[in-house]
Design goal:
- The chain has helices at residues 2-17, 19-53, 77-82, 140-146, 177-180, 188-195, 215-225, 234-272, 276-287, 292-323, 331-335, 352-369, 371-378, 382-387; strands at residues 60-66, 69-71, 73-74, 87-100, 105-111, 122-124, 136-138, 156-157, 163-164, 168-172, 183-186, 201-202, 204-209, 229-233.
- It is an alpha+beta fold.
- It folds into 2 domains: 2-52 and 240-387, no CATH class; 73-202, no CATH class.
- Strands 1, 2, 4, 5, 6, 7, 10, 11, 13 and 14 form a 10-stranded mixed sheet that branches.
- Strand 8 and strand 9 form a beta hairpin.
- Helix 2 (19-53) packs across helix 10, helix 8 packs parallel to helix 12 and helix 10 packs antiparallel against helix 13.
- The chain is elongated and about 95 Å long.
């Protein structure tokens, strides 16, 4: 153990003899690790946020489709769905989209008698859980962009061109910004008048199922009874979110290929040979009695030290980038290009899989590449090495 510690100490001293070269390698290495780790942390944070906020979403959403397009659904279908065994609460829903000219954003208008989910927190006037009258609750992004406060009027254009200006009674907090940033919750009766939807029609129907294992069976029975229906389960929504984040993350991964290629060139240059000074150092070590495996161990320790410092520095930079700067480098790409793109607290968690990916793509190749030229020089005759 003492011998290994002395070799390790000698490796650190060798790196300190050429501080400029070591610093350049560590800086480039750390930035590459930071970018990769930031992307992995951000994607995982988005997935966690979406799964947390969609935990209270309905198990099945029933829509009416005609000609491949989503149409309004008859409200009386809710009574037929309630007759299916294993079905819990069935709720016809009214919602839609509305363009907001002052901001250039497309808002989501939702009709509800109260706040639709327990996970959607808001601040404002005291609103009973199942009662929302003569007012609306807006997302924090919309409130900031339109400078809305509690008690202000928010004008909305109806389907016939007239204006409807409900009073803002609440503003959703940033905790649920991924779902509510561009959301406006109105009483269902008011929203029907905004969109011109009759009382016997709704946008879709949400269905709760008592047994999660029966979701597929219930969805199948609904499709058998109404051939023009389309069912969307909570699992399918979560899979869609994951696919979206994976696709957007893939865009950044493609852009990072340039950095990865540059790092590959660095590793290739490291593996093709040593500098003249390094060859002479190995020759002197061999001449003074060092064995080949000890020389390889020395170079391996040098690679491990550089890799470990760069890995730790890169992870720290990634944490600072996400916690202090909200991942501004790729936030718009991952969350989307909406005018009111959501802003939510990022909580990067260093799990084993992320750490292993960073080690596998950066630390292992560099450390292994350090052994290739060292082995070639260590097996050579010391006199030959010193003469080169």
């Amino acid at each position: 153990m003492i011998r290994h510690l002395r070799i390790f100490d000698f490796a650190i001293a060798a790196l300190r003899r050429n501080p400029a070269k070591t610093l350049v390698v560590v800086v480039v290495y750390s930035l590459l690790v930071a970018i990769m780790a930031s992307l992995l942390f951000y994607l995982r944070a988005c997935r966690r946020e979406s799964r947390h906020l969609l935990a209270d979403s309905p198990e099945i959403i029933v829509q009416r489709v005609r000609g491949g397009r989503h149409e309004l659904t008859p409200v009386d279908r809710a009574d037929g769905i309630r007759e299916i065994r294993g079905v819990g609460v069935v709720t016809p829903r009214v919602w839609g989209y509305s363009y907001d000219p002052p901001t250039g954003a497309t808002l989501t208008l939702w009709g509800a008698d109260g706040v639709p989910s327990k996970s959607l927190d808001f601040v404002g006037e005291d609103v009973e859980p199942n009662s929302l009258r003569d007012g609306c609750v807006v997302g924090s992004g919309l409130a900031d962009l339109r400078f809305l406060g509690i008690g202000d009027r928010f004008p909305i254009r109806r389907w016939d061109g007239t204006l409807f200006a409900p009073r803002v009674v609440g503003i959703f907090t940033a905790r649920s910004a991924l779902l509510t940033n561009d959301l406006v919750v109105l009483p269902t009766s008011d929203l029907r008048r905004v969109f011109g939807i009759d009382d016997d029609l709704c946008t879709d129907i949400s269905v709760e199922v008592y047994n999660p294992n029966e979701i597929a069976n219930v969805a199948g029975k609904i499709l058998e009874r109404w051939p023009d229906a389309r069912t969307v389960t909570r699992t399918q929504i979560l899979q869609t979110y994951d696919a979206i984040f994976d696709w957007r993350g893939g865009l950044w991964t493609a852009m990072l290929m340039c950095c990865i290629a540059a790092f590959a060139i660095l590793i290739w240059d490291k593996g093709t040979g040593l500098t003249e000074e390094e060859f002479r150092t190995i020759g002197l070590l061999k001449a003074t009695g060092w064995k080949s495996r000890e020389v390889m161990e020395l170079k391996f320790f040098e690679g491990i030290v550089v890799s470990a410092i760069s890995l730790v520095s890169g992870l720290i930079i990634a944490q600072v980038h996400l916690l202090w700067f909200d991942g501004f480098i790729f936030a718009r790409v991952i969350k989307g290009w909406s005018v009111l793109f959501p802003s939510f607290a990022i909580n990067p968690v260093l799990d084993a899989s992320t750490l292993l990916i960073c080690i596998a793509l950066t630390m292992v190749p560099y450390a292994v590449a350090s052994l290739i030229p060292s082995w070639r020089a260590s097996v050579s005759d010391p006199d030959t090495v010193l003469r080169t």
